[in-house]
Amino acid sequence: MSDPNIRSRKIEHIRIVVEENVEFPGTCSEIYSQIKLVHRAFPGIDLSDVDLSLNFLNYKISAPLMISGMTGGDPATTKYNEKLALLAEEFRIPIGLGSERALVLHRNKQEILHSYRVVRQIAKDVPVIGNIGANTLLDIGIEDISYIINSVDVDALAIHLNPAQEAIQPEGDTRFNISIIEKIEEIMDTINVPIIIKEVGNGLSYEDISLFYSLGIRFFDVAGACGTNWVLVEKYRQKDHVVSDIAEHLSSWGIPTPIAVIEARAAAPDSFIIASGGVYTGLRAITNIVLGADINGLARPLIQEIYRGGLGAAKKFLETMIREMRIVSFLIGAKNVNELKQKPFILTTDILTYFKQRGIDLNEYKAIRGGKQ
Asked: What is the DSSP annotation of 132-182?
């Protein structure tokens, strides 16, 4: 499992994400505009009544929001993970790590370990989520999985699925065959933390969720096609012009985040659903929860704010987003996350047609969207 470019790739990814236009076209503005929440002129509550805290992985977090895993694996990335961890601890929200493949490849290099471990050293009172690629599981053993869990003391392990990114990445590993399922089952039998199945920005489908749900997995991060587009990120690293052209053709490929939320909840009614991918405003975050998500995840906006304006700029972004989430909750008359999932939503004809063809009955869905209460 050699990968001589992995450390430089980590640095390249950060540079491309903050400097280039690598978002999905329109960041799903058209789709979100087709989902309406119902304004209440008389909310029946005070704004001060709104409490969006909830329990996640045995922690009480302050808002249905998390910092999604993005980086780690090179000393140059440590400063970003350090600042992201400071945000997670101050705002009392969960934080994910970037892929820990580098940790396995460079097990004896303390500076690589520190680029990940710094997150737990700072974010001591919130969930920290580890991360490894599904295809990487074919090359490593249970002892390696135990190492990436225990060396950073994570509360859950995300296994990410990224076939679109790998197909365009110059060093891409496109092994996503059924033997991965056997590896995941083996891992589930031996580790003592939950597994989260996640995409990286092209969305999880009903079929994907159903497959892993049948294994007993109950945590999913849909990571839909609305935010950072890793196909485009890899296009900037690709020297093969044919593959670069293909990346452009696939620039809109995937399942938009709010659509993926409904597909996930329909397939796994009692699971914990994370909505990430283009969730850059409080309104979008609350919309996803009303649709059936439990919490939202974001990464690129915070990396950008840190890169351009430092920790203070990132704090301001989170403060604004969380305050907006509280105001939107107030405007639809919801005091907490459970009440948000009971509030009405309206979908336009285009989205209704989509779900009719996907075999999801909207009335049946609304009855189960609250998840496991």
From this structure: EETGGGGT--HHHHHHHHHTTT-SEEEEEE-HHHHHHSTT------THHHH
pTM over 0.85: yes
Q: What is the pLDDT of residues 277-324, one digit of tens each?
A: 999 999 999 999 999 999 999 999 999 999 999 999 999 999 999 999
- Fold topology of 6-368: TIM Barrel (3.20.20)
Q: How far apart are the first and last CA of the chain?
A: 43
DSSP codes of every residue in 8-21: HHHHHHHHHHHHS-
d(CA 269, CA 273): 9
**Residue 373: is its pLDDT beyond 50?**
no
Q: Quick one: 214 exposed, middle or buried, by C-beta within 10 A (0-12, 13-18, 19+)?
A: exposed
Task: Give, as one character, the DSSP assignment of residue 222.
Answer: -
Helix (H/G/I), strand (E/B), else coil: 312: helix
pLDDT digits (tens, 9 = 90+) for 235-260: 999 999 999 999 999 999 999 999 99
Query: Which of 254, 239, 197, 246 has its CA nearest to residue 23?
Result: 254
The residue whose two tokens read 């820990």 is 100
Residue 28 DSSP symbol? G
